[in-house]
Amino acid sequence: xxxxxxxxxxxxxxxxxxxxxxxxxxxxxxxxxxxxxxxxxxxxxxxxxxxxxxxxxxxxxxxxxxxxxxxxxxxxxxxxxxxxxxxxxxxxxxxxxxxxxxxxxxxxxxxxxxxxxxxxxxxxxxxxxxxxxxxxxxxxxxxxxxxxxxxxxxxxxxxxxxxxxxxxxxxxxxxxxxxxxxxxxxxxxxxxxxxxxxxxxxxxxxxxxxxxxxxxxxxxxxxxxxxxxxxxxxxxxxxxxxxxxxxxxxxxxxxxxxxxxxxxxxxxxxxxxxxxxxxxxxxxxxxxxxxxxxxxxxxxxxxxxxxxxxxxxxxxxxxxxxxxxxxxxxxxxxxxxxxxxxxxxxxxxxxxxxxxxxxxxxxxxxxxxxxxxxxxxxxxxxxxxxxxxxxxxxxxxxxxxxxxxxxxxxxxxxxxxxxxxxxxxxxxxxxxxxxxxxxxxxxxxxxxxxxxxxxxxxxxxxxxxxxxxxxxxxxxxxxxxxxxxxxxxxxxxxxxxxxxxxxxxxxxxxxxxxxxxxxxxxxxxxxxxxxxxxxxxxxxxxxxxxxxxxxxxxxxxxxxxxxxxxxxxxxxxxxxxxxxxxxxxxxxxxxxxxxxxxxxxxxxxxxxxxxxxxxxxxxxxxxxxxxxxxxxxxxxxxxxxxxxxxxxxxx
Length: 651
Description:
Layout: H1 2-24, H2 59-78, H3 84-87, H4 105-112, H5 123-132, H6 134-162, H7 177-207, H8 244-253, H9 267-284, H10 288-317, H11 321-326, H12 335-351, H13 360-365, H14 374-406, H15 421-432, H16 438-471, H17 479-494, H18 500-505, H19 509-531, H20 534-545, H21 551-578, H22 583-607, H23 612-620, H24 630-640
């Protein structure tokens, strides 16, 4: 432990001195400065230093070195965090019973468990690949590199360094804590429909266990007299009788061609939602270490399911290499149109790397050990998401072609006006038409989707609970009661999304999530890299990881990523303008973010004392920003030159 902290101290000292030398052009052979001598391992005992002293140093060189170290101490002291006693605020008290992951790999599995969800099998990436081809794939990878990975690193830094949830982590710049409360409200409002998204694949998986798969038969109570089991159709015919697969989907989401009340409840979905919430509650009442082991097991299970399904699908379809390569050729011959048509889908797919809801990665990282090399796992998580997304796109193209060859053309013969229609029509018909073990393969696929969506629901609920208990100390003694109350409340709200009207609202939620994600990401970038400061952010990151973070990576995060996000905001707003039906909910979601943040800023300024300039300075300066572990905090304060008044806990 001591050797790790000593090395982290050296990295932090090198970081600050390096900035000073760059700014004052003092990089000279006298000091023998060499940035390549940084150690690359967090746990090594490498004693190489970036200060290489020649054996023939004279007194003048020693004197210059002493002056530079004096400046270093002064510079670090100037970068101190503000004490809560300076601002008359309640000091932050760490929740010692919040728990940590059992192993470092649990963070990886937690960040990957939702990657098998319905998003990557939806029509969004499939049509992005159809119209954009290889340009869509390139746009997706660029969005991962310039948007998802930088924001992933920032959220990981905020959560792991502070060991706090989405509210308390804003101690780095307290005036923005209103964004944390906005994230809390957004997560609370979206929990209800996440349960519904998990309920639908559960129903399909359960019905797959029947002797005869119900969506491949017209002998069910929900089928109409005009139910069809056709496997061949005439493309030119505008009218097609409803296929059994379509009628089963309508039965699940409570829609029909004859209208009816908008608040007709789908009882299968309602019963499934109630059961899912009870399972979620039982898991949330367990320790974090148990939840981490659960993520580890289910992630390995889902990966096994997906590999088996993908391999069997390729054998069943007997796809050729020419057909496979044709999937990556854009439908449009114009490059600009191909990129533009797939741009939003690429950004949304990249956003899925940041987890369900808002601030999920920050919450999951807060359960890491302080010295955990989260940067390395960031790249592993990104690669995993990219590989799974590409394989899922291939599966989606196969399912789309199979459906349109036998049932009907999407958005022409079949149009349910529901964003889940592609997944639960094309894939259900594909697996149901297998000649060998259709029930088995249908069950594997929909069970995989259900487990992934259940994991996403658990992660988002963890974000809500962690944010509340980390910020409000008095509520920590009532964890079980509050957890049960929130789950019951979310369960009640979920009933609305089990109706025909509730299902109709689900199709605009991806766009709402994308816009708020990008907006909050810009705020996080502004807060960490500009207000908190590039030097302090880079030095804290190096102290935490125990290794050097290159200036090039920081440059990308500070300049390239914000520019990329601003461009995409204009693109999203342009596309939203074309979708007039979604305008009201878009405005409501944005009002929640901005009004909550603005109200907290006003409240924060009113709680401080002094002139307006002093109030702003106190609100923008970090408060109690340090590692919560006693040893790491002591070493951090030694390096930073601070020693805030300690709060003695007598309880």
